[in-house]
């Protein structure tokens, strides 16, 4: 059952009221290409940065473009201090090691942009997606950290309006929360025709 979380700004307010996103949650965030996934996650990361450090693994764009997107939100000095960026390697084994290193430095919240750029030794896209979700879910459980993984909705789900992650596999099973940035004609700018929907949540209910 897909439940409406609310508007973009409403989701950010909900995060504030909860004191941030709960520790230990592995969150899959799916949407179509060019739908503003990264921009929305930057906004969420900046809200989280009001409380603690946030690590953004950036595999999708140049450092200059990411910095420009962050500046559009007019972040405070505290938010910028707590907003960390890492683009060392997109290989899954390297990514896991980087996460472990940042955990030792006190980072509890991670955003990975995106699943589509993570590389593994899997022989198929199905196995690749399943391996990524399995390994990241285990890291969250073992270390009580939160990871938000940017993902894509499948082409079929975009046609029929039924939310589903691209490449399927065990991605939904491994996740504690699955959000979809789904079509909604009533959404307000700057995210026109988009609204976040919760497909699954072991952590909290909207």
Describe the structure.
The chain has 206 residues and is an alpha/beta fold. The chain contains 8 helices and 8 strands; from the N terminus they run E-H-E-H-E-H-H-E-H-E-H-E-H-H-E-E. Helix 6 links the parallel strand 5 and strand 6.
Helicity, as a percent range: 25-40%
Write down the overall geometry: globular
Largest sheet: 8 strands, mixed
Number of strands: 8
- Can you write the helix and strand succession as a string? EHEHEHHEHEHEHHEE
Main structural class: alpha/beta
Q: Which value, in Å, is the CA radius of gyration?
A: 16 Å
Q: How confident overall, as mean pLDDT? A: 81
Distance between the termini: 13 Å
* Total DSSP helices: 8
Strand order in space, largest sheet: 1-8-7-2-6-5-3-4
Percentage of residues in strands: 15-25%
Residue runs with pLDDT of under 50 for 5 or more positions: 1-7, 183-196
């Amino acid at each position: 059952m897909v439940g409406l979380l609310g508007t973009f700004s409403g989701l950010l307010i909900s995060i504030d009221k909860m004191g941030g996103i709960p520790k230990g949650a592995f969150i899959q965030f799916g949407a179509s290409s060019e739908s503003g996934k990264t921009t929305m996650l930057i906004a969420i990361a900046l809200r989280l940065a009001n409380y603690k450090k946030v690590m953004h693994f950036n595999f999708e764009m140049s450092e200059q473009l990411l910095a420009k997107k962050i500046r559009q939100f007019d972040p405070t000095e505290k938010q910028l201090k707590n907003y960390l960026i890492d683009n060392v390697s997109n290989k899954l084994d390297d990514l896991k090691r980087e996460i472990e290193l940042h955990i030792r430095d006190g980072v509890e919240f991670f955003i990975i942009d995106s699943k589509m750029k993570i590389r593994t030794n899997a022989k198929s896209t199905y196995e690749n997606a399943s391996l990524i979700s399995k390994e990241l879910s285990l890291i969250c459980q073992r270390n009580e950290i939160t990871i938000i993984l940017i993902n894509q909705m499948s082409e079929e789900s975009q046609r029929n309006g039924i939310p589903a992650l691209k490449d399927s596999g065990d991605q939904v099973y491994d996740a504690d929360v699955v959000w979809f940035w789904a079509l909604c004609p009533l959404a307000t700018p700057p995210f026109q025709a988009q609204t976040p929907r919760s497909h699954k949540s072991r952590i909290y209910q909207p």
